[in-house]
Amino acid sequence: MSEYIVFYDLDHTLIAASSGQLIVKDLYLRNMLSLLALGKGMVLSALYRMGFISTESLIQRWVTKLAGMQCSFLERYSETFFDQTVKKYIYPQALESLYIHKAQGAYLVLLSASLDFICKPVMKYLHFDAMLCTQLEVNNDHYTGSIKGSYCYGKEKLNRALQLCLNHTFNIHDAYYYADSFADIPVLEAVGHPHCVNPDQKLLRIAQLQGWAIHSW
Questions:
Q1: Whole-structure pTM value
Q2: Residue 48 pLDDT greater than 50, yes or no
Q3: pLDDT tens per residue across span 124-182
């Protein structure tokens, strides 16, 4: 039985990049995404950064492009994408942190808003015990172009973390969470051991006020 539970965010916490931006660039370089689609994506990303559209809306627009794609094809691609691109962005400090917690008997959980096909190779490579992320809806081994359930972001991350703790009889107040974004506040406030990794400015200010651990990886 694991001694305690540790949650890790993915983007800018385990890896020194945005997995979404990496995959869009990779798809374009492999001629799997047209220049027009790339341009539209850049416009959407700019609108998101300016606050005109939500993160969930941005993700949903990208997900619609997967409608009709065979799951096995995307899973094979995601393995290649991880091996050739994502792997080299993993922080050495993240590996050290994972090793220390694992050696101490922790139950390791990848908790990310990223899509499941992006997270699966990460979970496998880093030997996580569980994964909580945004899932894609599937019908007859093909993606429908929609998200299954709720987008794993903000308070939804907390809902899933609490449910997992309940299922495995862990106490959330004994848990650790490593994350970088202001959007991760709900989980950071709930756990007993909040760790802010390369925090954005909003999270940095709160972490300093709350006396939370701050890391520069």
A1: 0.90
A2: no
A3: 999 999 999 999 999 999 999 899 999 999 999 999 999 999 999 999 999 999 999 99
Q: Which one of 3.40.50.1820, 3.40.50.2300, 1.10.10.60, 3.40.50.1000 gives the CATH number of domain 4-215?
A: 3.40.50.1000
For 23, the token pair is: 């995959």
Helical (H) or strand (E) element with 149:
none
pLDDT band of residue 43 (cuts 50, 70, 90) is very low
51: left (phi over 0), alpha (psi -120 to 50) or beta: left
Residue 168 falls in which region: left (phi positive, over 0), alpha (psi -120 to 50) or beta:
alpha
User: What gap in Å lies between CA 105 and CA 5, rounded to an integer?
Assistant: 9
Tokens for 121, please give them: 């190779």
Query: Using alpha carbons only, how large is the chain's radius of gyration in Å?
Result: 17
